[in-house]
Design a protein that fits this description.
This protein has two domains: 105-203, 2-Layer Sandwich (Beta-Lactamase); 208-457, P-loop containing nucleotide triphosphate hydrolases (Rossmann fold, 3-Layer(aba) Sandwich), CATH 3.40.50. It contains 15 helices and 16 strands. It has helices spanning 3-10, 14-27, 35-54, 65-80, 89-104, 110-114, 147-160, 208-213, 219-230, 245-253, 296-303, 320-329, 344-357, 364-374, 438-443, and strands spanning 118-125, 128-133, 136-140, 171-175, 181-185, 195-199, 235-239, 262-266, 278-282, 310-313, 336-340, 377-383, 389-401, 404-418, 424-430, 456-457. The strands form two sheets. The chain has a ten-stranded mixed beta sheet, with helices on both faces. It has a six-stranded antiparallel beta sheet with strand order 3-2-1-6-5-4. Bound molecules: adenosine-5'-triphosphate (ATP) and magnesium ion (MG). Magnesium ion (MG) binds next to helix 10.
């Protein structure tokens, strides 16, 4: 039984108890939902509507905004105090704050946006909002008044970004002014009503030191990857959704020497590099008439005319791979990118498929040759049980002769069950194989410890 229902019962308010149960039944609220919260949201949407109708927000200039906020706050206080709503003084205060969030922010999601530990906000339906905090998914008590309330928030977010979402184009991927990535899907594509996912980017991205400290990557592997980046070896980071690919890419980019010119290409800009000499490019979806699209492939091609030292593609998804490999094979070494894949070998298969889908008639042996010449290392990551992220494998691509890759694992993670909290546990190992690229690293005068690749368990 729901807490507020059981409280109403405890307080002897039989009438209120019956009403709450009836309301819960009427709205078919899921069991985890507190109907009091839904009621609160419903009152809020009523007052919000009144406030919006009372003031023409578009007629207010930027300078008048503080005045407007004060006015609205005053009106909200009056409305919340209306005895008809039966709100305690604490609830009234909360109502005013939430109304301001509704008018100027992301409504019920605003407190989650303010929480620095929240990295993702996932709204499945008006009554089910999850967050990811420090790698763990949690159900929150946040609710919307109803489907319409959630739909209005989505419309507002999208409209502010100059985009459109409705039944004829029911999907939007966009970026909030603070850098957070938003994806919204409406029915009929979303079967159970509108849904919204926000990947927050207000917070500081994890640095390589953070990844070492939380045990995701052992320091010995960092030493090797640092030297590899400095020696301009091209690196492909692979892994599943949320495995930490973008995070590692961002962290590794800190090893690129300060004087080098970096150009990043992304579908939805996420990278936050610390390097000064950095130009950011982002793709553009087609406009309402279906024109004006700029793809990652267009951007990669254009980048070659921008005198880059390094090209970083946030995530390769299509034909741009071919142009990127050509660039890597013709002097733009040291490029970095990520790909969605289940293992290091699978990452290479994915690249091949993307190239083939680009419509070329290049034989697969030639494609493999290109991949093997262009990319030196594949770093595979995974999100394991309990939300822990681990670097799973560092693989060197040594060659592709007669159409077969020679892949040599250099470092590996061996999972050994789970701890008391259900989080995956395991050991990092050096496989004992010395990568060929060490010669390139040494030629440049970069030093690595003599026993770095000796077969052993790595201390973390
Ligand atoms: N090693 C790590 N330890 C703890 N949290 C991490 C680690 N790597 C990434 N995260 C967190 O996991 C979330 C997903 O990370 P990230 O965006 O880098 O993953 P991704 O593989 O690029 O995901 P996507 O498939 O969506 O592109 C972020 O909130 C990030 O802060
Ligand atoms: Mg990513």
């Amino acid at each position: 039984m729901n807490t507020s229902v059981s409280e109403a019962l405890k307080n002897g308010s039989q009438q209120r108890y019956t009403f709450l149960l009836w309301e819960q039944h009427q709205q078919r609220l899921p069991d985890h939902v507190d109907p009091q919260r839904v009621r609160f949201q419903k009152i809020k949407t009523q007052i919000h509507q009144q406030l919006v109708e009372s003031i023409d927000l578009s007629a207010v200039s930027e300078e008048d905004r503080p005045w407007l906020m004060a006015q609205l706050r005053h009106l909200a206080q009056q409305a919340a105090a209306n005895p008809q709503h039966e709100l305690s003084s604490q609830q009234q205060e909360q109502m005013v704050q939430e109304l301001m969030d509704e008018l100027f922010g992301l409504g019920p999601l605003e407190p989650l946006m303010r929480d620095p530990l929240v990295s993702d906000i996932l709204v499945n339906d008006p009554y089910t909002v999850y967050v990811e905090r420090e790698g763990q998914l949690e159900l929150t008590p946040v609710v919307f008044a109803d489907e319409e309330h959630l739909r209005r928030l989505i419309q507002r977010i999208v409209a502010r970004l100059g985009r459109r979402i409705d039944e004829s184009s029911p999907m939007v991927d966009a970026r909030l002014p603070d850098g957070s990535r938003v994806n919204a899907v409406l029915p009929p594509l979303a079967l159970d009503g509108p849904c919204l996912s926000i990947r927050r980017f207000g917070f500081r991205p994890l640095s390589i030191d953070d990844l070492v400290a939380n045990g995701s990557v052992p320091p010995q592997v960092v030493q090797f990857l640092q030297a590899a980046v400095q020696a301009r070896l091209s690196i492909l980071i692979s892994g599943g959704t949320g495995a930490g690919k973008t995070t590692l890419l961002n962290a590794l980019s800190a090893f690129i020497p300060e004087q080098e010119r970096i150009i990043t290409i992304e579908d939805s800009a996420e990278l936050i590099l610390r390097n000064r000499h950095w130009v950011r490019l982002e793709t553009r979806p087609p406009n309402l008439e279906g024109q004006g699209e700029v793809t990652q492939r267009d951007l990669v091609r254009n980048t070659l005319r921008m005198r880059p030292d390094r090209i970083i593609v946030g995530e390769v998804r299509g034909p741009e791979v071919w142009d990127m490999l050509q660039a890597m094979n013709t002097g733009h070494e040291g490029s970095l990118t990520t790909v969605h894949a289940n293992s290091a070998p699978d990452a290479l298969v994915r690249l091949e498929m993307m190239i083939q889908l680009a419509g070329g008639t290049v034989p697969v042996e030639v494609i493999r040759q290109y991949i093997a010449c262009g990319i030196r290392l594949v770093v595979h990551l995974a999100r394991l049980k309990g939300g822990v992220r681990r670097l799973i494998q560092v693989v060197e691509i040594q060659s592709a002769q007669k159409g077969q890759y020679r892949l040599v694992p250099v470092f590996e993670f061996h999972q050994k069950g789970v701890d008391a909290q259900g989080r995956a546990q395991g050991e990092f190992w050096a496989t004992g194989q010395v990568p060929q690229c060490v010669h390139r690293i040494e030629e440049l005068g970069l030093e690595l410890p003599a026993d770095l690749f000796a077969k052993r368990r790595l201390a973390t």
